[in-house]
Batch of 2 targets.
Target 1
Amino acid sequence: MQHRRFCEAEGREIPYEEVGRGWELPDGQLVPLTDQDLERLPLATRHVVEVLGFVPGQDIDPILYSRPYYVGPASPPAERPYALLVEALARTGQVGVCKVAVRTRERIALLRPRHGMLILQTLLWQDELRDPGDLAPCAPVTEGELELAEVLMRECTGVEVDQLRDEYRHALEQLVAAKVSGGQLAAPPGPGPAVDLMAALQESVRAARAHQGG
């Protein structure tokens, strides 16, 4: 397989040496930007993580989370300050808010502890979030439905996320095995009929209590 760059306006394939970056101005003018231009950007975060301050971890909305990276001390003299920061963050429940350059772009990020190490959790900028204004509003619920849902949530506690299985990968492995052996994969069950919400909640509560021996 090959990745081809095709220009519909000119009706031709564009060689790699003709591909570049640019910034479009409001009037439509395109300002070309080279790798050398980007290297000269006056960013303090190009080579260091700039810590701006510390906040409680729960104050950061998880919707902003982008990618996590493990980070470690760059040299032996940095090991003790690194360990001190890991322990202080773990003890206080705080996270460090910082800026860092990732692939020439400046990102906002968090420094948070995990298993005795630091995680650099990059975040989305606010203007990268989708505006939820076009989503449908929540449907109204009754007090009885809400109380029953709360009971169900109390009954269904103790989920160990690290023990959950990737069902898609498991099904894919079964499909590959069936193709290799010449067998057939069982058809997945179809969607069930629409059910009454209260009846479904009540049945779920009964099943949860029975599973827990209640």
Target 2
Amino acid sequence: MKMYVFVLLLSVLVAVGQSTKIDGPCPIKIKQIETFDPNRYLGKWWDVYANSYGVCGSGYGCQLTYYRLYHEDIHAIPINWFTGPTYSNECSFVIYQTDYDVDPRLFYDGDDNSIYVLDTDYDSYAVEIGCANDDGVTHEERVVLRSRNMTMPDEVRDRLVKKVVEYGFAKPNLNAHNYTGCKDFTPTH
């Protein structure tokens, strides 16, 4: 099911590019059955905070992540990243649900990096975490805080960071995405 280098995101949740390197294996473990509705997660998300940006995203300029139609038959969501002042630059990839019968929040990108929707209310915020084991001795962690608009209240950010740490990740050094001068944009294709 490998299609594209998921450049972490966790934009992306995305492939873990310049993520934080941590000692030990990835802490992501399926703990319990959770309710997650991938269809409610679809649509436009702004990556307001991230601890690193992958190939598709630089952390600068205007960019957004758009989750497209959920494909029930292959348990996958195509994603588009739009960047630039006119959002004309586009990067596309697919993430796949794995163990969807056990935990529908766990995904893998095309390079088998795990991506996990740790928390979302679907309407305003989400936190995605990603982890890639390097050599069995270290791993790289990716954290992205997403919002349905270009901002996120500090109290929501702080609550989501606390949840990431409680889950077992190191406290992320988050960079705020600069949306100064960016216009709202909704992809049509």
